[in-house]
């Protein structure tokens, strides 16, 4: 896979090639999941369906590599618990604990290199939202990373979809939901009905999460 000057050349052909590939195809959706929300689930399910992937692994970060002061994060145990609840009804969704178990800051290049060594028969598709696309040039060893995995981009309201890297853009319904919006709604005592799965909402309420997240 080589670096290209535009997002996609003939996406339909690429998508068809992936759909008909006989190799095992696994989508990885890395994220902070603070908390997981319907945007994550819809994008994962749409990518799985449209690329005919065998499964999707939701991979929580131990500590996001480019975390900023704005992005306060609760413990990985709690984020993993919420993720397990969020995906419990989908047989092709699973949680990948590689980064949480490794701890600290994990760059995607290192993680994917390790996962490819562990599972050489698998083709990995690294799924990112539109907000991450313009960020890719700053990722650690991005030129090497695009040789290891196929990036799949999902539109996100208000964000660019152009990239100098070879990303397959998958057309999915856009949902303007973010974890930060959910944290904010909880903090102001607002409703998060239908923004997160009911079981995640109940967990947030039971544990009193995000109440002070002003
Ligand atoms: N509504 C959405 N539409 C498209 N992509 C999304 C959406 N929500 C999250 N993503 C993507 O999912 C991945 C993990 O996101 P993350 O767990 O950081 O959630 P977030 O909603 O972006 O969080 P925060 O609001 O705290 O920044 C990222 O690639 C992000 O771009
Ligand atoms: O490897 C990098 O340089 C890098 C930089 C920023 C983000 N990422 C990964 O992108 C995924 C989404 O990150 P975030 O911060 O939106 O939760 C997550 O798996 C991060 O590890 C990776």
TrEMBL record:
Annotated catalysed reactions: nicotinate beta-D-ribonucleotide + ATP + H(+) = deamido-NAD(+) + diphosphate
Cited function: Catalyzes the reversible adenylation of nicotinate mononucleotide (NaMN) to nicotinic acid adenine dinucleotide (NaAD).
Keywords of this entry: ATP-binding, NAD, Nucleotide-binding, Nucleotidyltransferase, Pyridine nucleotide biosynthesis, Transferase
Pathway membership: Cofactor biosynthesis; NAD(+) biosynthesis; deamido-NAD(+) from nicotinate D-ribonucleotide: step 1/1
A biological process from GO: NAD+ biosynthetic process
Matches recorded under InterPro entries: Cyt_trans-like (IPR004821), NadD/NMNAT (IPR005248), Rossmann-like_a/b/a_fold (IPR014729)
Family the UniProt entry places it in: Belongs to the NadD family.
Gene behind this protein: nadD
Pfam annotation, one family: CTP_transf_like
EC number: 2.7.7.18
The protein's name: Probable nicotinate-nucleotide adenylyltransferase
Organism: Atopostipes suicloacalis DSM 15692
């Amino acid at each position: 896979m080589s670096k290209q000057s535009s997002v996609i050349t003939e996406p339909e052909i690429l998508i068809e090639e992936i759909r008909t590939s006989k190799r095992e195809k696994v989508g990885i959706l890395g994220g902070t999941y603070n908390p997981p929300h319907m945007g994550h689930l819809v994008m994962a399910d749409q990518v799985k369906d449209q690329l005919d992937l065998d499964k999707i692994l939701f991979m929580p970060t131990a500590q996001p590599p480019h975390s900023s002061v704005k992005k306060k994060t609760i413990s990985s145990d709690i984020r993993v618990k919420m993720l397990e609840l969020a995906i419990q009804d989908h047989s092709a969704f699973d949680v990948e604990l590689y980064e949480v178990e490794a701890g600290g800051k994990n760059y995607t290049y290192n993680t994917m290199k390790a996962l490819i060594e562990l599972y050489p028969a698998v083709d990995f598709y690294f799924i990112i939202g539109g907000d991450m696309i313009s960020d890719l040039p700053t990722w650690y060893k991005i030129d090497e990373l695009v040789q290891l995995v196929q990036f799949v981009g999902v539109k996100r309201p208000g964000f660019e979809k152009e990239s100098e890297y070879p990303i397959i853009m998958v057309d999915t319904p856009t949902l303007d939901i973010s974890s930060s919006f959910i944290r904010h709604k909880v903090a102001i005592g607002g409703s998060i009905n239908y923004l997160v799965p009911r079981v995640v909402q109940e967990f947030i309420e039971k544990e009193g999460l995000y109440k002070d997240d002003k």
